[in-house]
Amino acid sequence: MRIRFWPRFTLRRKRAVWGYLFVSPFILGFIAFFLGPIVQSIIFAFNELTIKAAGFELTYVGWENFRYALRVDPDFVRVFTETTIQILVDLPAIILFSFFAANLLNQKFRGRWMARVVFFLPVILTAGIVYRFESGDILTDVLGYVPDETEVFSVSRSMIGLLSVLRMPAWFVQYILTAVERVPDIIKASAIPIVVFLSALQGIPSSLYECAAIEGATGWETFWKITFPLVSPLFLTNIIYIIVDSFTRPGNTLVELINDSAWGRGIYGVSVAMTWMYFGVIAVILVLVFLLLARRVVYMEE
Amino acid sequence: MAAELSRDLETMPKVRRKSRFFTSHFWAETLWAFVRAVLVLGICYIIVYPLLIKLSSSMMTEKDMYDMLVKWIPRKLNYESIVQNYRLLYGFMDYPKALFNSLVLATTVALLQVVSSSLIGYGLARFDFFGKNLLFALVILTLLIPPQMIMVPLFLNFRFFDFFGIMPKSVNLLGTYWPFILTSITGMGLRNGFFIYIMRQVFRGLPKSLEEAALVDGAGQFRTFLTIMVPGAASAMLVVFLFAFVWQYNDYQFTRMYLSNTAPLLPFSLERLTRTFDVEQYSKEYISILNNTGMIMFITPLLLLYGFLQRYFIESIERTGIVG
Predict the structure, then answer these.
(1) A133 contacts on B by Cβ (under 8 Å)
(2) Phi and psi for A49 in degrees, rounded to 5?
């Protein structure tokens, strides 16, 4: 009788082994460069960290790092609230704009290809270093990237007038105004959400539209009864993407503060504590968005 | 035959069609086409404007900045005046060396990330094994955690790298390309989770029958992957390459952490310009011109790459490649 070294695998088991093989880089990387660091960062948040030539030393300080960030650091609380509000303000604007732009780019018109090339251009122009130069550049002011103050004011004033005539609530007016000021930033941040929406729009089977046209549906009805529901799962995807993108978006002052605490001031524990608080708020926002949207999303049966 | 046909057509009674100008449908269409053109052009303008400003100011002299009549086009425009600022920065930035290093680093990282994310994406898309859904959730989790959270621990891990305690003495991997290589090959690089997600969706969308045919014909799993699946996903892989390249090329924070900001790479040499200008005591206006020139020199390689790859990028969207 021959003794086999390998146990005889069924086809299923064999394929499972292959699956693990293909995924194994991720498992290794996840343990080494993600799970390990995450555990360490929890430890660091409650310790004072000093780096020495031969290694690093930890001194347990309890909640001191969090207390320092919240009570002692002069900027953290302000920057923290600002950044959070910024995300909440940007999120609906980016989502609405990118959905609108994707619908626009999905239509047939001359120069559509060119328009798409330009719309996706911001994907490659995301360098933080470029942003830093731009924000401190006098030329952009001189040449009037932002229109003259008087212009902004007149536009804003006429808009305030219009909106108050329509008896819009004050917070809505304020929101519109900040959104208008941030139009270039919102357009830049929309590039990938547009890509996601656009490919979803292209994926809707044309038979559905033909069917609707034969049944005599108007364009308006077709949009709300077919286009919108079928694209709706991607609202969730995009919301997640936009939030993730905001971590690395240049001009995120909270991230700058966190980096500065670690590499500028050398208070590593505090910077990690700050990040945990940041992540906590982001997680709450994500959970709320999920609870709000998950039920209303329509999934097409395959 | 043809003559008969044309005669028939001539003798056919002419139907007076109602002119299309009188239908409300026509006018609605035209109006919308106009509004759409304005919107598209306006948005394009907002996107391209910063680039145009940089380009035009990179060709200016200091005098042009004070000139109230000069807004876009400098007073003197010839080869010498166009090239002058670029020539100056070419030396200041140590441009050829910095560009070469940046390109090599970004290409290495992008290639490794394409390889790792296709392998992982394929594994998640086509095989059934215990914990597959959990693994996919973990991929998304790596995206959702702000990179700053693991920044300090990663820094320490690479500073005192002992291969998870296996090696007796720790080595310092900082200042080498190893941190980039190790994180990219294991799918943990910058936004790697996003690429894994894309590749998984693409592989899920490819027809199963081809793969099964290859397996039946006796090709191994890995060979099937290389010869059947990879060609099918090639354009998506190019898109992932573009993304990974761009993000590595633009990255400042992690590159500085792994290599220190004295490394001869483009973002750092762009940053060092500020100090050079301080030493040279240039005027505010001239510094602005040179900064814009530097940014053009930084962006140009990316624009070229995008120009070459935009076809695949937009095609893969049209074939609903990116999200399934």
Answers:
(1) 270, 291, 294-295
(2) -110, 125
A217-252: pLDDT as tens digits: 888 888 888 888 888 888 888 888 888 888 877 778
The answer to whether the Cβ–Cβ distance between B267 and A127 falls below 8 Å is: yes
Greater model confidence, A116 or B322: A116
Interface of A with B in 60-99 (CB under 8 A): none
**Same domain flag for B159 and B54:** no
Residue at which a domain ends, from B87, B105, B131: B87
Measure A291 CA to nearest chain B CA, in Å. 17
Domain membership of residue B71 (yes or no) is: yes
Q: Is 80 exceeded by the pLDDT of residue B152?
A: yes
| Per-residue tokens: A169 | 């609530």
Tell me how close the Cα of B218 comes to any Cα of chain A, in angstroms: 14
pLDDT band at B109 (very low <50, low <70, confident <90, very high): very high
Contact map slice: B 193-222 vs A, CB within 8 A: 194, 196, 221
First-to-last alpha carbon distance for chain B, in angstroms, is 52
Q: Would the pLDDT of B298 be above 80?
A: yes
Structural domains in chain A, CATH included, are 73-293 (1.10.3720)
Residue in chain B closest to A97 (alpha carbons) equals B43
- Is the pLDDT at B236 greater than 90? The verdict is no
Closest Cα in chain B, distance from residue A251 (Å): 13
Residue that finishes a domain, picked among B87, B119, B139: B87
**Residue B63 belongs to what domain range?**
23-87
B107 and B256 co-located in one domain: yes
Nearest residue, CB atoms, B160 vs list A55, A140, A279: A55
Contact B119, A25 (CB under 8 A): yes
Measured CA to CA, the distance from residue A265 to residue B152 in angstroms comes to 13
From A21, which residue of chain B is nearest by alpha-carbon distance? Answer: B123
Cβ within 8 Å of A, B 290-319: 291-292, 294-295, 298-299, 302-303, 305-306, 310, 313-314, 317-319
Q: Which range, of A157-161, B126-130, B146-150, averages the lowest pLDDT?
A: A157-161
Which CATH number fits the domain that encloses residue B231?
1.10.3720.10
Instruction: Calculate how close chain B gets to A243, using CA atoms only, in Å.
Output: 8
Task: With H, G, I as helix, E, B as strand and everything else as coil, classify residue A51.
Answer: strand
Average pLDDT on A278-287 reads 90
Q: For chain B, what is the mean pLDDT?
A: 83
Segments in chain B forming alpha helices (H): 2-11, 24-57, 62-66, 79-92, 95-126, 132-144, 151-159, 178-185, 192-205, 208-216, 221-224, 230-232, 234-250, 253-259, 266-280, 284-318
Give the separation between CA A234 and CA A229, rounded to whole angstroms.
10
Partner residue facing A22 (CB), from B33, B127, B182: B127
Partner-chain contact A16 B292, CB within 8 Å: no
Q: How many domains does chain B have?
A: 2
What ipTM describes this predicted complex?
A: 0.81
Prediction pTM value = 0.84
- What region, left, alpha or beta, does residue B187 occupy, with left being phi > 0 and alpha being psi -120 to 50 degrees? left
User: With contact defined as beta carbons under 8 Å apart, do A178 and A161 qualify?
Assistant: no
Q: Does residue B46 sit in the same domain as residue B135?
A: no
* A218–B contact, CB cutoff 8 A: no
Residue B144 touches partner A, C-beta closer than 8 Å: yes
What is the pLDDT at residue A148?
40
| Segment B28-34 mean pLDDT | 88
Instruction: Tell me what pLDDT residue A132 has.
Output: 66
% of chain A at pLDDT higher than 90: 11
Place of tokens 């997680």: A283
B6-21 pLDDT, tens digit per residue, is 666 566 666 555 566 6
